């Protein structure tokens, strides 16, 4: 699943290419992606509108249109975004054609990706974005906020990091990397950390996410497809989806935590 760094990198890279471009037409190729609107209404609502801003909130990509309406995408497990100049793209669920000839495809071969269309008067009361927690790279995400959420939680520390109502944008991969960098075992209770561990965790949340955003931005991209990041990101990861600890060289352990396979080192993490 693409997480905050991948989506932020695509957002920053794609924004200059599509902002202030007008949508000439849109076509829904697979109804499974639609969450709150029918295909004909979405197609007519997008046609003729200008994209004035592309932004990210958590794991969501947001297209702000000239009338204040928003097209929101969530890529679920296997969703991708592709920008090219052809209609013939396999597994495209939604096609958006721009006035300059560029075509945006929302692709998902498993058809789990989701799309919402929010009118200006409804935005903020949709339940799509308003329930998300703090953005981890924002000024609003403070050490005090993190400690408060941890102290009130009965979850594991990894479960808390992946809870989108607490911290927006962190998923399985980056939770593993953040906790490894912080020398904290993922199955520890969130309220069991000491002050130094909370501080280290807080700093590493910002550091790891920022480093991976820069890595994704510098990686070679093929038509803005998330899949171009996946292999490179996995190679850069220290523990996620790996078998050997890069520090002590002992075998990494795996364990289901909050329903996800977690990778950690029992020697380097406490």
Question: What's the short version?
Answer:
The protein has helices at residues 4-18, 39-46, 143-151, 157-162, 172-181, 195-218, 227-236, and strands at 21-28, 50-57, 60-65, 70-74, 80-84, 92-98, 103-107, 114-118, 253-257, 260-264.
- Secondary structure class reads alpha+beta
- Can you tell me the residue ranges where pLDDT is under 50 for at least 5 consecutive residues? none
Order of helices and strands: HEHEEEEEEEHHHHHEE
* Quaternary structure classification: single chain
Distance between the termini: 27 Å
Give the overall pLDDT as a whole number.
Answer: 93
Largest sheet: 8 strands, antiparallel
Shape descriptor reads elongated
- Helix content class: 25-40%
**Strand order, biggest sheet?**
5-7-6-1-2-3-4-8
In percent terms, what proportion of residues is strand?
Answer: 15-25%
Q: What is the helix tally?
A: 7
Q: Based on DSSP secondary structure assignment, what is the total number of beta strands?
A: 10
